[in-house]
Amino acid sequence: MPPSPSSSVLVVGAGIIGLTAAWQLAQRGQRVTLIDPALRAASGSAHDDLSGSHAALGVLMARVFQRSSGRAWRLRQQSHQLWRTWLDELEHRGHRLPRRQGLLLLAATSDELERQRRVAADRARLGIPLQSLSPEVLGAFHPQLPGRALGGLLSPEDGQLDPGPLMAALLSEVTRLGVRCVAAQAVTLERCKPWRIGLASGEHLTADWLVLALGLSTAPLLAGLGHLLALEPVLGQALELELTDEPHWNWPGAVVWGGINLVPRPDLGDNGRRLWLGATLEPGARASPQALDTLRDLGGAAPGWLRGATVVRRWQGLRCHPQRQPAPVLEEPEPGLLIASGHYRNGVLLAPATAAWLC
After folding, report:
1. Which of 30, 59, 62 minimizes the C-alpha distance to 353?
2. Which residues, in sequence order, are bridge partners of residue 330?
3. Apex CA 338: angle with CA 335 and CA 343, to 5°?
């Protein structure tokens, strides 16, 4: 049964999933409270934690996704359509949201090249424009692309969206809509009518509906009610690099090589010499220097200009990966209790479809 216009909703977690959920629920007239220790009333910042939202580079891979049916495909296509509308709405309200149109997947092996050809043929039947690029075409891009790619698949409708400015815009909007923001940690969950959340401060909050969107911390809260949810951390490290020379970018968007994302950042100044590189996939919560070295060198495929770049910034975050079930976890284990967690590497991409499901 969907919530009535007068329902109260507690959204626990202020990563990209919690923020989009709070924004959409508030727009629909719900009385929303957003809870997360990373919320800082003084600074208005929701970006000081190590959640999966902060390991993300915001690469949006929807149209070029290798499957063309099933739940994962449907969620990606729904999110693709919603983001187009939502970003226009946010920018109309004056928010600057850096984004790059276009996503180029490089094929390092013959198997990858064959998969790209199958995807291109499948999308052509669906009327989705993808372009197969030859090694000769790839060789004309500057700066030089990584590795010796056998080919590439360009998706003009995919791209990249910066998580930081996006989350700041969403936090501004939920505040404008009257969402109550509570900078506290949720430590207990009680089954009652209404739902009751206990905070580390000793305060208790109640609401008709409860949304758990706090990544790895979702499982301990659910365990108190007897619900088991198997989630594991996968750490991701990312780098911001500055090139030695002005590169004169003509890449058709962000580039993916061997699962590693390369995102040009001309909007960061420095004559367009900045590049985002990431992110690693490291089981557990401890960062590996070796994994960062492999990322930095693209596993031996980095061209000279990338090897000579200077590391300006490094950051990391913990992605929430579901065990024994596909990502993400979108469930209602009890009436009025909603779980939106375990998005793994696609939190930014799937935030709209998740918010729509929650609403």
Report:
1. 62
2. 340
3. 155
